[in-house]
Amino acid sequence: MPSCATIINIIEKLAPKNLAFDWDNTGIQIGNYNKEVKKILIALSVTEDVVEYAYEKDFDMVVAHHPLIFKPLKNVRKDQLLGRIIYKAIEKDITIYSAHTNLDVAEEGVNEILAHLLGLERIEILKETSTEPLKKIVVFVPEGYEDKIVEAMGNAGAGFVGKYSNCSFKVKGEGTFKPEEGANPFIGKKGKLEKVKEYRIETIAPENKVKGVINAVLKVHPYEEVAYDVYPVDNEGKKYGIGRIGFLKQEMSLEEFACLVKDKLDLSTIRVVGELNKKVKKIAVCGGAGSDLIGTAIFKNADAFVTGDVKYHDALDAFMHGIALIDAGHSATEKIVLNRIKEYIEKSLDDINQEAYVEVYMEKELFKYL
Ligand SMILES: [Zn+2]
What we know:
This protein is α/β, with parallel strands linked by helices. The chain is built from 11 helices and 13 strands. The strands form 2 sheets. An 8-stranded mixed beta sheet has the order 6-7-5-8-10-11-12-9, sandwiched between helices. A 5-stranded mixed beta sheet has the order 1-4-3-2-13, with helices on both faces. One of its GO terms (molecular function) is metal ion binding.
């Protein structure tokens, strides 16, 4: 049976925690990493209804997009809403975990899904937020083991340069060592200086993969003590960011595009700012509250920007700049990720021969349009 830690590892492979914004509070909110998990509930927000449901139906873990705890708590009071939710979760030992802005930014996250769902092509990041730091890894390997080591490093995530994998470089040289008392050398005798033909193999890896790469090397390297170095480099790794921008396959009117958004997001109403007969092709998107990115969408010459939570003055600003705005609602532009998380967790558990019951809690539409 998987533990909370297993589930969290799976989620953080999809949405690495270091992608979250500084002001955010992603990660475990309540609970513990060691708890065994039979049932997982996926939700957009941790409402009282969600925790009530998890409580009644014996869920062990709630995985939500929005953090339950956002500002530091001064108290946990049972007579207040947040305190009540926390009490309820603790009472039944329900772990509550959030993947928020890291899931927005992730390569397969909210914004990427939204862009694909609307049929965009040549999708790029709307606004860059971080660049993956890289490290150079150097390992010294005896002759005959070089390919094994390169492959192990590649499988652990090292050696990716653009669209190429297993990138490495090796030079031949001579290594020296003298096995001391207590050593169990692969080559050589105790107390005698050995000279061995070795390769210096170097490659590059994202910082968060270095540990895994070194562990993979240690597993296949024949030496008792493996010599390796990890260097900082100034090369820039993969770029991450919020929102996406891309092109529709065919130009269409704003009205046609708004109907497409409505259809894809399964909405009965939608708010549109702009001339309905205006032609649109280059589209920017940001799930949830994305008004902060209107300026970036204008700068990048988008014809229309799809987001949620648009305020009057932001809409007016967009209108005056001539960019069309589609406010499809905060939850409608984000809940598209929930089923993906469910499928992703199920598949990832299957890959490691484990299983858990995973269910999506679809909250009722908050706003009613009369
Ligand atoms: Zn949101």
